[in-house]
Design brief:
Helix content is 34%, strand content 31%. By secondary structure, the protein is an alpha+beta fold. The chain has one domain: Alpha-Beta Plaits, CATH 3.30.70.
Amino acid sequence: MDKIAFDPSAATLVNVLTCDPSDQTKLLNLLRENIDTVISTLDGWRSTTLVAAPDGVRVIIISQWHDSASITSMQNDARMQAYFPKIAALAAFDSTPGVVSYTRQA
């Protein structure tokens, strides 16, 4: 299992995607493809974690970026713009930027 580490100095973007359980695997595959081919190539990207709900209804994306300008740049990138309709065809999503305010690890 990969270790999830959050950098409190980074800009964090959290997306909650709600889908039909029959679409969760397709959604995860689409998101992985997007992370591997687009997200990971963008300036300011640091990490992305996908969390799949066991009931198949939600996928949570937690990504960290150098700063909020990097998030805005990602959202405006033409390659990302091409992915948004594909994601919207599988899930409704809500997004919020923020900063890590507390973390504790064993």
